[in-house]
Write a structure and sequence with these properties.
The complex is a heterodimer.
Chain A (H helix, E strand, L loop, with lengths): L10 H14 L5 H12 L5 H13 L4 H44 L3 H27 L5 H16 L4 H19 L1
Helix pairs in contact in A: 1-2, 1-4, 2-5, 3-4, 6-7
Chain B lengths: L3 H15 L5 H14 L5 H13 L7 H23 L1 H15 L4 H28 L3 H17 L4 H16 L3
Helix pairs in contact in B: 1-2, 1-4, 7-8
Classes of the chains: A mainly alpha, B mainly alpha.
């Protein structure tokens, strides 16, 4: 419930939001940060729109998080927003990785560096789990959708099947089912 | 002698197009090209660069930027980044465009409803893999579950949560 709620974003504003998320997302899970920022805090998108974008970003080739930044940017502001999303999520963190690349190599001598990073990463896993639970909550409570969700989880998480075949396979069954039920 | 910028482009652009399901899937191929084919880095240097890419904020695939930088300086970093992130940007842009033009079409509603369980399964699977990959045993598992609960119940800034996680690890280190 921030004061920015209801205001429409500008290209520069979007760029700065993506840059900030890119620069502060230690431990990964950037899409969880996007959910929090755009859906839960600012309410610029619905959960529905967000998870659609996430599924499409992951199914298409390309670095997922860059795809999602372009997708969200486009939904907000069209072409300008897409460019802002692309540049914001890549350029500032890209500069930082080059700068820190030199620095980090020397800091890794200290045990405390490892501990700090492991602790931050553990908390970041919580971000991923909370997003997974939010997404699972939205699945229709019927046999087929729930079975397909479990099958996707098992195929990717436990059997380590390639994502593309899993998504194409389970996804087309699921989409076909909803097409003929609509 | 070949041009390193051209080599970076021809290494990373094809990887960009086959990267499906996260940059992780491309790491093996990047490793082969960088260490075995082009001899840009030793095995140890590559592992170091990989570790740094996991620890710095932002997309892990910025590993390519770091490799480009070490191979050919500023322009190496620019070329490697654009080669890895650029080509598929146009694809998602095109899909986003088509998607908004056909808002509300029957096929789109079917796709949106049908993708829900798949997206949920994917996120839970990714979480499961991360959960198992964590170093730090029960402390890490406890921190991850506590952070999930806090996120679901409050509007806390996630950065604060990460700082708490880091703080807990450092303070418990002396005890455990």
């Amino acid at each position: 419930m921030r004061n920015s709620q209801g205001q429409s974003p500008t290209a520069l504003g979007l760029f700065l939001i993506f840059a900030r998320i890119g620069l502060t997302s230690f431990g990964g899970g950037l899409s969880g940060w996007f959910l929090r920022e755009f859906v839960q805090m600012r309410k610029w998108m619905t959960e529905e729109e967000f998870f659609n974008g996430l599924a499409i970003s992951q199914a298409l080739p390309g670095i997922n998080i860059k795809n999602l930044a372009i997708w969200i940017g486009y939904r907000m502001l069209g072409r300008k927003g897409a460019v802002a999303g692309f540049l914001g999520i890549i350029v500032p963190p890209g500069i930082v990785i080059v700068l820190l690349g030199t620095l980090f190599a020397s800091l890794m001598r200290f045990d405390v560096t490892h501990l700090l990073l492991e602790g931050a990463a553990a908390a970041a896993v919580g971000l991923s789990l909370s997003m997974g639970l939010t997404a699972a909550w939205r699945v229709p409570r019927e046999v087929m959708p729930i079975a397909l969700m479990i099958a996707t989880f098992v195929a990717i998480g436990i059997l380590h099947w390639p994502l593309i075949w899993t998504v194409l396979g389970a996804g087309s069954v699921s989409v076909a089912l909803s097409y003929f039920n609509v | 002698m070949s041009n390193p910028l051209w080599d970076l482009l021809t290494v990373f652009a094809p990887i960009s197009i086959v990267t499906i399901g996260g940059g992780q899937s491309a790491i093996a191929d990047i490793h082969r090209q960088v260490v075995d084919v082009h001899h840009w880095m030793t095995q140890a240097e590559f592992v170091n660069a990989f570790a740094i890419s996991r620890m710095t904020p932002g997309p892990g695939s910025l590993l390519a930027t770091l490799i480009g930088w070490q191979v050919a300086g500023f322009w190496g970093a620019v070329v490697a980044t654009l080669a890895l992130f650029g080509p598929t940007a146009f694809l998602i842009y095109g899909v986003a465009h088509v998607w908004s033009r056909f808002q509300g079409a029957r096929w789109q509603i079917a796709l949106e409803t049908g993708l829900r369980p798949i997206a949920a399964g994917m996120i839970l699977a990714a979480t499961y893999i991360l959960f198992n990959a964590m170093d730090g045993g029960w402390v890490a598992e406890g921190v991850a579950l506590a952070s999930t609960a806090v996120l679901m119940l409050t509007r806390i800034n996630p950065l604060l949560l990460l700082a708490c996680g880091a703080g807990i690890f450092v303070s418990l280190h002396g005890i455990v």
